[in-house]
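In response to a reviewer's request, we include the raw inputs and outputs for one of the modeled complexes. The two entities were modeled together in a single run.
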Amino acid sequence: MENGGVRGLTDPATMMVVAIARALRDREVVFHGLASPVPMVAVLLARKLHAPNLVYLNIAAGVDPHPVELPESTVDPRLSHGAAALFSLADVFDLAARGRVDTAFLSGVQVDRRGRLNMSVIGDYDRPKVRLPGGAGGAFLAPLVRRVLVWRTRHDPRTLVEEVDFATIRGRVERVFTPLCTFVMDRGALRVESIHPYSSPAEVRERTGFAVEVDAGTPVTPPPTAEELAALEEVDPRRVRDVEF
Amino acid sequence: MPLPGVLESDLAARGHIGRVRDPFTGQEYAAVRALPLDWAILHVHEADADGNVRIHGARYEDLLLARAAARVLVTAERLVDRDSFRAAPDRTDLPGFLVAAVVEVPQGARPCSCGTTYDYDRDYLLAYLKAAADDEGFREFVRRHVGAG
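The model returned the following structure tokens for the whole complex.
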């Protein structure tokens, strides 16, 4: 295998799953829903590396699955392979309402400076320019879990906006992961926590639709280590993570 | 289930979400109007002539749908003998008295998947998405594949 560092530096999909995996903790209860290949890979990677006792719940309903082949669709029954129990979506929402889901992955077409997500409309709700797919339960789940991790495989001013057209989802966002950087919520607003090694403060500033304070002193995300890359190669050899890019 | 929290979403101001108060704690919860469903149509793995149903693997929202609708129509990969349900009633997902009609339709979920029995037909679904991009394409697709209209 080629030098892991060079490959890691030039591959946003890899950098994102590694950055997300690093944020997951052992023994926590994690959930993702539909259309979530990047979180799926990140959770499996975290479990392999530093979080072997993480509880992995997802919309395919298998608890702590051991999939043989990662599917492109995260609701595919293949994702439940190896699970000893099933836990439905209704069970997950109930668990969250009881305060026992630690981390949920959510996304949105627009993400704003205050960490709100828009899944509903571009433009006016009653006469929209674009009617988006809808909140898919995220509006209900976000205020109930301990923290929301947002991921978005695009980083541009139409995605990261000053203010969303419609705040479908408000609640408990801790971090936002993009191909260029990781944001962390700080006193009600998103702050750049680290910039990925192949990007730059100028690029992040240009491609973010709200003002960000970045300069040469902003931390750089450590590139994927050889150990992380080796684990990722075992978890996602066919690069299903690329399906979101 | 009534949930707190979603009242913070802009959706709450749009009239889709009602508010109810917990009579014991005073906490405010969101309520959503029940869907007025006449029929729930479910494709399942096994059913008998009485409408007893067994689903293999995850049930997703099927059991909720069955209870939310006035009537349930079941299509099944295969019809089996009533005895197979009597032998393991704990493995029955829907009791027959909730089911209005049963039809044996092998491959009935196609082009979508049916648990781990068969996978979705990717090429067919991509062709459909392409065809359905406009009205004429959609009509032609339905004519060719469904034979209607």
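As requested, we also summarize the result in words. The domain at 4-237 of chain A is CATH 3.40.1080.10 (Glutaconate Coenzyme A-transferase). The interface with chain B takes residues 60-62, 76-78, 80, 86, 88-90, 93-94, 97, 120, 125, 135, 139-140, 142-144, 166-171 of chain A (CB under 8 Å).
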